[in-house]
Every structure is written in C-alpha cells, then in structure tokens.
Amino acid sequence: MKKTTIIILQSWLWFVGSAAAAECPAGNFADGLGACQQCPAGTYAEEPGSEQCTVAQPGAYVPHEGERLTYLCPEGTYSEVFGAVSCKPCEHAQGLGNFRCQKPDYGLAAH
Question: Of the candidates 103, 93, 102, which has an alpha carbon nearest to the alpha carbon of residue 73?
Fold first, then answer.
C-alpha cells in the first residue's frame, strides 16, 4: 500500500513523497523524501527496495540509468574506473571484465 506524506506550511500543501523504499523496483532507489529515483548510468540496484545504488567496479560498466545489473566489459575492451558507462577498446584485452589494457605476459623470460 502506498503511503503519502502531506506537509502543510503557511497554507501551502506539499506532497513530499508517495513511495517507501520497499516499493521501489530494481534499478531504482528511495530518495530521502520517500520517492523512487532511477539509478544514474554507471550505477545499478539489483534488488527492489534499495536505498542506494551500487557503483560499477573497474572491468564492468552500466550503460543506462535505471539498470538492475552491471555488465562485464566484453573481450577486446576494458574499464579502469569506478562507475563506467562504457568500456574502452584494447587489442590486448582477453576474456571478460578487463580492468586494464596490458599486453599479456605469458611467462616467457629471456635466457
């Protein structure tokens, strides 16, 4: 059931909010006024009822606002920052979730 808070100040009627944290869907968070807001790009909220968004870790990205998941950088790309909205190309990046662009070291040492 939605809960609405009403505050009356000097004959003005203000509707402060109409959603509790438990009512916000995944990809959203409850702001301090009780309203649901979409998580900004670069962040996500996996579970309904989140009170904050989670920042994407290096090697991952969140391309749009309102996302409930983070995405690993695809092969051939990387992301070295927190809160990335895309991954950068890198010819050396192998596999998923690369957080830096570095030529692979295959353990070959000069003799």
Answer: 93
